[in-house]
């Protein structure tokens, strides 16, 4: 199957690029002027240098480092908790985000504004997302990037209002604010449950994430750059190139579209032909593409508008150097893993190993993103062992270091059981006109096969609020800026918190200067990423895997843009681009002050040993208390 990106042309013949970074940021640009939207985005401004990246011997990260230098750390503009902030919006300190990275406030998305008069989220006709400037609007500013993502956002706003309506019947004395808070807490818990009971087992294999065993105040949940810039970008390899809306029987309800024609779909078009309901049905039936080091040509050459072009693979490689990521082997050592001695140890595919050697020369120069995608898979997982360790580490820390994780809150037993049994298919059944859905929407199933032997069906559940108890405790209500979750480290993972590191920073000066002499990212893309091993079996995962991955990434990441140019330039002999064609990217803003203190006494993420986390549980409520 083909994977696509997007180029459109205006009536004046000027290029308009609408890019989907599946697990990064979205950017919508006009006439070749690229607008930065954070980590993973491309941007440039006037006066960009035409300097190319040479292929000389790399400078060791500490070779010219200033004594006592503090490595720059990129800044997160959203909360780094899985707290449904992508649904509800955030409260951001004034001046932190630029005008192109402003996130909607909670008050702007709920009925009553500053005072939640009804508890409901604002919707447009047909229980759809509100509309601003012709596009759907949600808690995350990237919700309108593509219709599949918009459908997920629509689903959770409907789910919130579904709970509010039923809570109001059971508790007519509750205020609108009480209804809003309770429904928000339930939706947050459901998103957490879907992530850990469905998404992660599909990606990492069953049992990869150990069971929750209580809140640990000494676990650092900070998002690592290894996770953000490399491991969570696995999704660039699996995105489908087709966007469709399906009827209950699987037939198309509207025109089938290439992804490149569906970016930033106007709200008036999104709601046609079944709208979110139809898109969600297709997400469950569409098979994801193979997870490997290959990106299709549309993603590598999807805008060739001299003197500018876009290559998503080259940008990902350059972004890893922008934030000072260690190489694959350096990261493996930091994780306590044995470094690879040769490219043949990375991948069982001899052709890919040969291409990696051609591109990098030596194994110790292999970038983390390319190397991680190339590694042989962990049994039962879709990723190799380095990405598996990074992803497992991060998601365990995010959960165990979260005082307001749903299992640590004082739910009544009935609601706790409801949350524990939540699946994404369950949420779809009660909020759309869909009557049948496979039990696990992360595994693809054709609509025509639903109900046949071997395809388990999801079961629509009854109202959980008939016997629900008191509202969630006041000390369990999340702030809208992510602060206050850890009593000692109150700013931890809140808006403006910095990304951390698993391994040491790889900067030429130890601060922010990119290491010179690394292989040209575009050359690597041409040699390695253009190669496709067609003998790899098709995936069983559905499109929900990458759509949920994108939604989840937007939940916890939105890196602040900077102003320094970091563009890549095509080398001589490029098969598509003229020599020196600019592949634009702006570097991220960084903080080089003394790093903030974090739980565990370290200034960067502490990697727990496989299968568990250090330290005793503290403040845990493993069982419902009411």
Walk me through the topology.
Elements: E1 7-9, E2 15-20, E3 26-30, E4 73-74, H1 85-88, H2 106-109, E5 131-132, E6 135-136, H3 147-170, H4 176-204, H5 225-230, E7 242-243, E8 257-258, H6 267-270, H7 275-285, H8 297-300, E9 303-305, E10 308-310, H9 312-322, H10 328-334, H11 343-346, H12 350-360, H13 368-374, H14 385-400, H15 413-420, H16 424-431, H17 521-529, H18 544-556, E11 561-565, E12 568-569, E13 582-583, E14 586-588, E15 590-591
Antiparallel strand pairs: 1-2, 2-3, 4-15, 5-6, 7-8, 9-10, 11-14, 12-13
Short structural description:
With 626 residues, this protein is mainly α.
How would you characterize the overall build of this protein?
- This protein is mainly alpha-helical and 626 residues long.
- It has one domain (7-591): Myeloperoxidase, subunit C (Orthogonal Bundle), CATH 1.10.640.10.
- The chain contains 18 helices and 15 strands.
- It has helices at residues 85-88, 106-109, 147-170, 176-204, 225-230, 267-270, 275-285, 297-300, 312-322, 328-334, 343-346, 350-360, 368-374, 385-400, 413-420, 424-431, 521-529, 544-556, and strands at residues 7-9, 15-20, 26-30, 73-74, 131-132, 135-136, 242-243, 257-258, 303-305, 308-310, 561-565, 568-569, 582-583, 586-588, 590-591.
- The strands form seven sheets. It has a three-stranded antiparallel beta sheet with strand order 1-2-3, with no helix packed on it. A two-stranded antiparallel sheet has the order 4-15. Strands 5-6 form a two-stranded antiparallel ribbon.
- Strand 5 (131-132) and strand 6 (135-136) form a beta hairpin.
- Helix 3 (147-170) packs across helix 4 (176-204), helix 3 (147-170) crosses helix 7 and helix 3 (147-170) packs across helix 16 (424-431).
- Mean pLDDT is 84; it is low at 1-67, 603-618 and 620-626.
